[in-house]
């Protein structure tokens, strides 16, 4: 417990002192919201008749939270391993679970702040997002989504040996996934084969769950399905992450 507390406090201090990372973690999703929101302000999606903001806001929020989880833990594990920090931690009675749990708690905190800030901006008159009364259900969806994407970030950070490699691998995963999962473009307007492909991507279900909770789109069971599938992704990716975790580049 003491090791977990020390790692959590150190991670929090390091994150809050890095102003560049701090700024872009929260600003990057908002930039997409502003661009897409202003371009499609007042327009509706032809296939469903719903305002475009009902699609773009939950989708961009989901992508932003998942992106932050992947990049956050991926870069840290790579840097700690490269600088032999993980090797030094291994020489103490600190289990892998304490290392990953400290990053997990930080990712949950970042995700909570991201979501609150993003929704507050999206509700401004310039964008017009109307939050449904079942919005509290977004909390378990985000927790499960962050868990799944954090595990994915651990896998990336365990294999990548340079910052460039982390950025390249993470971007190759997250950017195509954003388009294929409906974060930047409504799935209803996509070809059938792309909608089918999206069903094997965790971001699809994070989008569905967040959208259902925030905008009230679809029945409650859709949120339950999203949570169940995200739980499956979290378990599978978590098992792979623990299996592939490395304390150093030599082991």
From TrEMBL:
Hydrolase as UniProt keyword: no
InterPro entries listed in its UniProt record: ABC2_TM (IPR013525), ABC2_TM_bact-type (IPR047817), ABC_2_transport (IPR000412), Nod_factor_ABC_transporter (IPR051784)
Classification via PROSITE patterns: ABC_TM2
Chain ranges of the ABC transmembrane type-2 domain: 20-248
Membrane association type: Multi-pass membrane protein
UniProt record similarity statement: Belongs to the ABC-2 integral membrane protein family.
Name under which the protein is recorded: Transport permease protein
